[in-house]
Write a structure and sequence with these properties.
85% of the residues lie in helices and 0% in strands. It has one helix at residues 3-19. The protein is rod-shaped, with a radius of gyration of 9 Å.
């Protein structure tokens, strides 16, 4: 797996919570 992909997938929920 790509580290960038993992960071992107992990950043999706984090960004959603941050957007809140």
């Amino acid at each position: 797996m790509d580290v960038r992909q993992l960071a992107f997938l992990a950043g999706q929920p984090a960004a959603a919570v941050k957007n809140r």
